[in-house]
């Protein structure tokens, strides 16, 4: 994507009512929407996050299927989720929002028990050992998710990385979290939820074209 195109999208994001772009200082000094996301959506419906949402296909796809739930796509790259934000506005989806921030600040942005469910779709697996701290399902991140999730909150991981799938599955078992479902090839093995099979991201389609299996884990963080 050219720099002019990026700048245009950044500017357009600033005009979108469904996009929130706080500065790091605003987040760390007492974010105004923390414990108050119901005011953003103007209802008290359940809140579901997609972390590292990319172009926002999953955020929008889930919102289309579940109008009685609120969805927030979170990513630091606003030029990417511009597409999802624009699509949501064009479709008059009032249960969709996009948040530009770093994932490690998530517990400064949402209060305790404010989130019902989390989706992590195709994160960078950060395979090198020295990158462990950046894996989105490492113990530190899981603790952050636990802080903001309601009691027995759900975390979903969908990835093309067999390494990430195995690492996360082993970690969850070791920590004693309840694994509700795990599948190392969702399109080959039966049993995956419809939203896992029916919503496909831009990158997922590329992985499928390359013949890579797609894995999925659903667990309860308690």
Automatic annotation (TrEMBL):
Binding site for substrate: 128, 160, 201-204
Residues bound to S-adenosyl-L-methionine: 50, 75, 124
EC assignment: 2.1.1.33
Pathway: tRNA modification; N(7)-methylguanine-tRNA biosynthesis
Pfam families linked: Methyltransf_4
Main EC class the enzyme belongs to: transferase
Function, in words: Catalyzes the formation of N(7)-methylguanine at position 46 (m7G46) in tRNA.
Name recorded for this polypeptide: tRNA (guanine-N(7)-)-methyltransferase
Native species: Flagellimonas marina
């Amino acid at each position: 994507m050219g720099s002019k195109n990026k700048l245009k999208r950044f500017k357009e994001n600033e005009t979108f009512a469904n996009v929130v772009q706080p500065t790091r200082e605003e987040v760390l000094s007492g974010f105004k929407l923390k414990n108050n996301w119901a005011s953003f959506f103007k209802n008290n419906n359940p809140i579901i996050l997609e972390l590292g949402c990319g172009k926002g296909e999953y955020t929008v796809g889930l919102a289309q299927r579940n109008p009685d739930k609120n969805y927030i796509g979170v990513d630091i790259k606003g030029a990417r989720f511009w597409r999802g934000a624009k699509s949501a506005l064009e479709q008059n989806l009032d249960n969709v929002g996009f948040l530009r921030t770093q994932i490690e600040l998530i517990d400064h942005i949402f209060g305790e028990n404010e989130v019902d469910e989390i989706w992590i779709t195709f994160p960078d697996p950060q395979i090198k050992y020295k990158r462990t701290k950046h894996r989105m399902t490492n113990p530190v991140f899981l603790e952050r998710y636990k802080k903001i999730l309601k009691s027995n909150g759900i975390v979903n991981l969908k990835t093309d990385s067999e390494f990430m799938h195995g690492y996360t599955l082993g970690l969850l078992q070791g920590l004693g979290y309840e694994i509700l479902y795990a599948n190392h090839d969702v399109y080959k093995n039966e049993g995956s939820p419809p939203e896992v099979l029916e919503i496909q991201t831009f990158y997922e389609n590329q992985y499928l074209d390359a013949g890579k299996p797609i894995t999925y884990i659903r667990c309860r963080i308690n």
